[in-house]
Task: structure prediction
Amino acid sequence: MKKIIFHTVSLVLLSASAALAQDKIPLVTKLPDPLFVGTPVPITIPNLEPETKKWPDFQVPAGTVNLAISNKVTASDNDPVVGTLDLVTDGDKAGDEGSWVELGQGKQWVQIDLNKEANIYAVVVWHFHSQARVYRDVVVQVSDDPTFSKDVTTIYDNSAAGKDRPYVETYFGKLIDAKGVKGRYVRLYSNGNTTNKMNHYIEVEVWGKPAA
Amino acid sequence: MQTAETKAGWLTAETVFASAHFLRASAFVLIALLALAVRLPQLGVRPMHTDEAVNAFMVGHSLAGEAYHYDPKDRHGPALVESTLPLVWLEGAQKFSDLTESLLRLVPVLAGSATVLLFGAAVEMFGFIPCLVAALLFAFAPLPVYYSRYFIHETLFVAATLGLMVSGWRAVRRNSLGFAAIAGLCAALMLACKETAGLHFFALGLAAVIGWRLRTPGKMPPAKLWLAGASAFFVGGILLFTWGGQNWSALGDLFRALPHLAARAGGEGHEKPFTYYFILLAGGWSGAAIIILALLFRVTGSFARLTLAVYAVLIGAIYCAIPYKTPWLALNFWLPLALLAGFGIERLWFASGKPSARAAILLGAAVLGLLVAHDTRQRVFLHPAAENNPYAYAHTTEDLLSLPVRLEELARQNKIQNPRIAVIAKDAWPLPWYLRKFSNVGFWQPNQETGDADFFITTTDVPGKLAERLKYFRPDYFGARPNVLLILWSPAKTSSPP
Result:
């Protein structure tokens, strides 16, 4: 009898998982060509973000699209040193001159307006991928408040206060699990990098579905 | 009446000559002072390149009382360290950690300014206008200014090369044993800077033979001059290499260096195409204009001019043919290039007698001056360590300057008085320079077992055994050079084992 109950419960759970899985599809994005000359050697330390060697297998609900494409971008530095803010959401991830915007020294942010509230499943960011670099204090937040003074959800934080780990930039970008958080604005912080004190963005994708 | 008048006045031939001589000398002194003024600002701002850090470390060794031991496998001759010590003693530095970037870089600054002054001594040899132009270019152009603020051997080497040319020429011209001895000492200084001096001796010697045959056929200089020069070269060379007679093995090591030098010439990771130096020198807003001026030179000049032109071609061909290339080696071409550009301007000047044409030449020279100023500002002062600066070769990134600051901060936060720092890397340079203020630092190769430490600094290829130890440390990345990252591991209290 116990055996029958166990098998029945297992079957029900498997069926439920399969039903849920049917709604999920792998997140696929068009990757830029790799630009590294002299790829860094593999990092094998348990508490260090492993080197990204392939696009991660990440599931999102069917119908998920890049909501950031061509949308308005604002920033803490309204007068970028190089490039313009629209480069952040123009779909060009090439990584060469002319495809990135450079914000001033120290802590800076860019913010993307999705135009209306959305369920966000993933944020993918390419800071700079023509050499081995690490951007410091990368924080990604979502909110309905354009000033980010209330109802802020932090989905990624590798600053000293956060639990995420610093990572080496590659042409795969950094895929951040947003866990379906609701919000209209996405803000990304950084605080210089291991080559200079500037902040760069090639592209930011916000994968989600408009909230019902 | 006329005699009395001229004696009392200031128009005698001697006084006119003396005045002209004084004015010429004053012009070169003024340019040398301006060269010094251009080279001195922000001397300590640019991060220390690995080669600078290695040279600084050797100065530190000497300060600790250790005699210099010439290494046939690496690191060139002792001249840079020997030239630096008097300045360091004057400044009162007693140990490695007392040294600063500004103090060390003062040596190439002085050598670069002295080179400008030496062009004044070469007027008799090459003419006033070429020497004036060469002095101005050497004083202000980006490449000589950049490497006159770089603690490596090149600027001292180039100063000694010009010293050899000028004193050698004067020795022959005046039949002077004194100048022959100075020429020998300059040659010894060149060799004690870099072993590549041999290539320059060959190029200069062959150029002088060609120049002599074509322009001054006749007897060769007397044997006593050769003897004086050779004696000074050997005595000077022996004193420099043996650290004043303290390390005689250096003489044998100098010969043992030959196979290593041959291997290095093959490239050792620094291979560049044949055209590398041409592209480097022609770069920026002013490079192409200077090269065009140099190409205006016609092979019709005196022995000295012809010799210089042949030397420029020979040394250029040799360096271009050698696969191993670095941007600072281009300074060796700058010496003849600047003089050849001077010959070009002189030719233009005398080819056009009309005032309007000469005004146009002066205007062109002024425009060239502006272009040179732009390049120097960009490459030397605004972006000295930037990746797109062709002179900043495999340069230490500015980010590394924050590593010792961060270490101090973390030591304070963790209440560690005298932090134990373990550096594990195949190539740790320039970290010995940046960690010189910490008294408890050890350096290990990746396969070596390290002791306990409060902080670890590693490259990104840490072996598994150490990786297990670092499990409870927090990683912070720092850029060392383009595409080379270091990780500072600091105690992470929140994730430490129970």
